[in-house]
Amino acid sequence: MLFGKKKDKVHFNPGNRDDGSHEQEIDKDYVEEEVNKIEEDDVEVVLNNEENIDKKFSGNNTLSKYVELGRIMISMLKDVKNGNYKNIPWFTIATIVMALLYVLNPMDIVPDFIPGLGYIDDVAVLTMGVGWIESDLHRYLDWRMENDMGI
C-alpha cells in the first residue's frame, strides 16, 4: 500500500454542527459515500493535476483562501507519499483527494462555466472536507513549522 494505511469504511458523524453555513447545502451522506470510494490511484490523479487544481481558483481573488487550502492539502499528500509525514489516517487522505477531485471536475453539481455560481458547490465540498479534517491539517502545519519546511 502506497500510504501504509488500511482503508476502512469510515462513517463521519458531524454531531450538532449545524452552523447554517453553505456547507449544509451539499448532501453529507453523498460526500461521505464518495470519500469511502477513494482509492490510492485517485491520490496519484490529484498529485498529477496539482497545477490544474491551483488554476481553478487562482483567477478569482475572493477564492484565494481556497487556493492556499488546496496547496496545503496537496503538500500534505506529497509529504505522506514521500514518507516524510506519517501521522495521518486514511480518512483524511481520502477526504482531501475526494474534495480536490471534485474541484477538478468541471461538470459537477453546478457546472463551473456558470458565471457567479459555478464554484459554489466546489467551495461547499472543499469547506465541508476541511471541516472534517481540520485538526489533521493543523497537526500537519505544526509539523511543517517544527521541521522548518515551507509550503
UniProtKB/TrEMBL annotation:
It comes from the Bacteria. InterPro entries: DUF1232. Residues 93-127 form the DUF1232 domain. Residues 16-25 have a biased composition (Basic and acidic residues). It is a multi-pass membrane protein. The chain crosses the membrane at residues 88-104. The keyword Membrane applies. Pfam families: DUF1232. It is found in: Endomembrane system. The keyword Zinc-finger does not apply. GO terms for cellular component: endomembrane system. Keywords: Membrane, Transmembrane, Transmembrane helix. Residues 1-25 are annotated as: Disordered. This is DUF1232 domain-containing protein. It comes from Marixanthomonas ophiurae.
